[in-house]
Amino acid sequence: MGKSRPVLSNVQELSLLGSLCHPRIVRLFAHRHTRTHSYLAISERGTFSELEAGLMVSDVGEALNYIHCKSIVHRDIKPENLLVSIERVAAGVSRLKLGDFGLAMVVTEPVFTICGTPTYVAPEILNETGYGVAVDVWALGVILYILLCGFPPFRSRDRNQEELFKLIKQGHLHFLSPFWDHISEEARGLVRALLQPEPTVRLTAGQTLLHPWVKAMAADCRQGAPNDKAKRNTVKMKAEQDQAQQRHQNNASELTSEKSESTKKEPISPFGIALDSLTRIIIHNLLPPQSCS
């Protein structure tokens, strides 16, 4: 599976990315492209436990805190732009790096340009009231929501972009059952703090790193030995999620059999679309990390 973009749009990105050196941001050593395009290979992965999600938020938070301190706003934070390093902290748990700086820019005053990916765009961008680095934190909140339950917090039932933008600007969060039944209140609290419609109330990247849930989940992952309570919660949550998904599969099969015995449906989410299409987290493979002098 590949990704391509016109080379002309890479000029600013390569310049900006080349000036950055941080363990949680992909390092630019060289670039190769054809006369018209550059290419990146990507792969796919499913949903994640609270432990994994906490470490991922910590990794992305570190990257955002670093670039925000340099007055750089990324403006396109989404799963496709999170690259997985071969650096591991425990069996099956990898570290993330932030990539794709094609829309990034140095911001010294409010920006009014509307850009980004619809699902992850912050309300202040849509309201055209001027925005800054806080839009990246909003997008991190959307990613965390997806990691924990498998679908976005704001989505149009009919995939209507105008309706989606209206929902984002309203900013009403819902933790739907059964998908959120066994997610901890601490994790929900962080989601609420990241998805504050008012950017001045929203957590900063630095504050996100200091959130108790992020610190606890990341510490457990880094130690490679989650505490007993975390283990029990993770196992219980996985079992309950599997049961919930099986119930939805059975319901979908029953509905399908009423219409056609030969047609098989995918599990359906509360938004009326296939769960499989929502639970894919697209990631990039990356060369081993190197230290920055």
TrEMBL record:
Q: Which Pfam families match?
A: Pkinase
Organism superkingdom: Eukaryota
Q: Which GO terms describe its molecular function?
A: ATP binding; protein kinase activity
Q: State the residue spans of region: Disordered.
A: 222-268
Here the segments flagged for biased composition (Basic and acidic residues) are: 256-267
UniProt biased composition (Polar residues):
242-252
User: What SMART domains does the record point to?
Assistant: S_TKc
Q: Where is the Protein kinase domain?
A: 1-214
InterPro entries in alphabetical order: Kinase-like_dom_sf, Prot_kinase_dom, Ser/Thr_kinase_AS
The molecule here is called Doublecortin-like kinase 3
Q: List the top taxonomic levels of the source.
A: Eukaryota, Metazoa, Chordata, Craniata, Vertebrata
Q: Which gene encodes it?
A: dclk3
